[in-house]
Amino acid sequence: MNTKEYILNQFKIYPKLELQDLMKFLYQSCFGCEHLVSDFSKVKSNIEHELQDNKDSFNSIEELDGDYVRIHLNYGLSVDTLSTLFILSSQQEKNGIKQLEEKNQSLMDLISNNELPFSVEESKCILSKWKEDNYPAIHHSDTFNQLYHPAYRLIHKKYVPFLELFKYIDNNHPSMISIDGRCASGKTTLSNLLKLVYDCNVFKMDDFFLQPHQRTTERLTSPGENVDHERFEQEILIPLSKHEDVKLCKFNCSTMSIEHTILIPYKTFNIIEGSYSMHSSLQKYYDFSVFLTVNKDEQIERLRKRNPKMLNNFIQRWIPLEEAYFNTFSIQDKCDIQINTSKA
Questions:
Q1: 163 within some domain
Q2: d(Cα 343, Cα 270) in Å, to the nearest integer?
Q3: Does 264 reside within a domain?
Q4: Nearest CA among 71, 82, 74, 79 for reference residue 57
Q5: pLDDT (0 to 100) of residue 176
Q6: 182 shares its domain with 133
Q7: DSSP assignment of 81-112, as one string?
Q8: How sure is the predictor about 35, in pLDDT bands with cuts at 50, 70 and 90?
Q9: Strands, E, within the chain: which ranges?
Q10: Is the pLDDT of residue 34 over 90?
Q11: What range defines the domain where residue 189 resides?
């Protein structure tokens, strides 16, 4: 949708809104949160207070005309998760005043064309005064508050594809989940985000490449066998299943050897991240599994940006190995949730 369509959609959803509510909508579209937020306890307390006062059953996500969405407090996330996502979103780069002024012009065009029920002259005055004051943040109108009882927080839209996963975690409290999927689909990015939100352990399949003596022709030509899933099971998954600390021994691709042991204290929530994490011998350990995918063109572009010198190696070797594994064992179908991280 373009800006005018977003504005008209707001009017359709909230037919009694006032001009300042549309101004707030456009401001949030450009700037997201009104200011930088970092005090977790205060953010959490405010959300808990609003939840007590607001009994409406809104549980939707409302898209804004920019990089943010409104997520209603009753969407189904825990207060802790929503608070963390809100704080992370407030730290994102903002679009700026130029974009806001362009959106304001679209708003005035709609008013001038009688597509919105506001006075042209009065609206011009209000928007001009807003500009003179350097576009301060705006509250919802009293009418909007009384009729629609807004209770939401703004989060960056890049978190939206993962909200159903967050909801599952918040409501089911799994002890171990796997994140498998195509290279450059965002497995590491998602695992890092989960670590920020939940303070969990993250264990990477990339730390368990085959040692030189394991790299036989027979093994390397067998789908799903180009990682040391046996050692991963023994050193990571079995201790975790017993609620024990993990003695992590990473494989170093530069030296082609196993590094010294790192002790990882046990945590109640653990992420297993990387291609081949859903190997048939490992699936029994997981409470939940995620498959990330991305369209081919975007996958190649991400790999090019990540490491242009290695692009051909991925195209000719690693991607075919992954696809053989996915197809042979129907990995995508066996995962509990599938998330496409391609840009819309």
A1: no
A2: 28
A3: yes
A4: 74
A5: 98
A6: no
A7: HHHHHHHHHHTSPP--HHHHHHHHHHHHHHHH
A8: confident
A9: 61-63, 68-72, 152-156, 176-181, 201-204, 246-248, 251-252, 257-258, 262-264, 270-273, 288-293, 337-340
A10: no
A11: 173-340
The CATH number that applies at residue 216 is: 3.40.50.300
DSSP string, 242-262: TT--EEE--EETTTTEE---E
Q: Whole-model pTM?
A: 0.91
Of the three residues 127, 157, 187, the one that is the final residue of a domain is 157
- CA separation for the pair 249, 316 (Å, rounded): 29
Amino acid 197 reads V
State yes or no: pLDDT of 190 exceeds 70: yes
Closest of 343, 292, 295, 302 to residue 165, by C-alpha: 292
Please indicate, yes or no, if residue 168 is contained in any of the structural domains: no
The answer to whether the beta carbons of residues 43 and 163 sit under 8 Å apart is: no
Distance in angstroms (rounded) separating the CA atoms of residues 249 and 232 = 10
Shared domain check, 209 and 143:
no
300, 311 Cβ separation under 8 angstroms = yes
Task: State whether 150 and 183 are in the same domain.
Answer: no
Strands 262-264 and 246-248: antiparallel
Please tell me the predicted confidence (pLDDT) of residue 57. Answer: 58
Contact between residue 166 and residue 77 where contact means Cβ atoms under 8 Å apart: yes
Q: Is residue 167 part of a domain?
A: no
Report pLDDT for 53.
80
Mean per-residue pLDDT, 104-123: 98
66 shares its domain with 126: yes
Indicate if 139 and 215 belong to the same structural domain: no
Number of domains in the chain: 2
